[in-house]
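Moderator note: this is an archived Q&A kept for reference. The question asked for a predicted structure of one protein chain; the sequence and the answer are reproduced below.
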Amino acid sequence: NMNRSRVTSELWVSALRKKLESKAVPIFISKKGNNQAGAIIIKVSNLRGRSKIFVQASYSGDDRRWMELSDGPDAEMEEVLKSQQKFDRDVWILEVEELHGIQFFDEFLL
């Protein structure tokens, strides 16, 4: 059924935030995107100067699949984020700290 309303980006982000905060995982919304349908980019920092950037692979329906876009020094990753924003002004950018022992994408983004 094509009319089934998709979960809005805003709702999805707020659900993720609650889930992470319940596990004491810090999450920051560094750029708020389009409430309805903005793409979501997640930067996962290891707090030792490196981070990874994940984007949603296009996928049908409500199922959000993630793929790693980039991995490298924080400064380089900031450049990647800047260019993503130029390309898509509606994008959301979330930043998460990778805590030891948490497989972020396995646990939270299934």
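Archived answer notes: Helices lie at 9-22, 74-87, 104-108.
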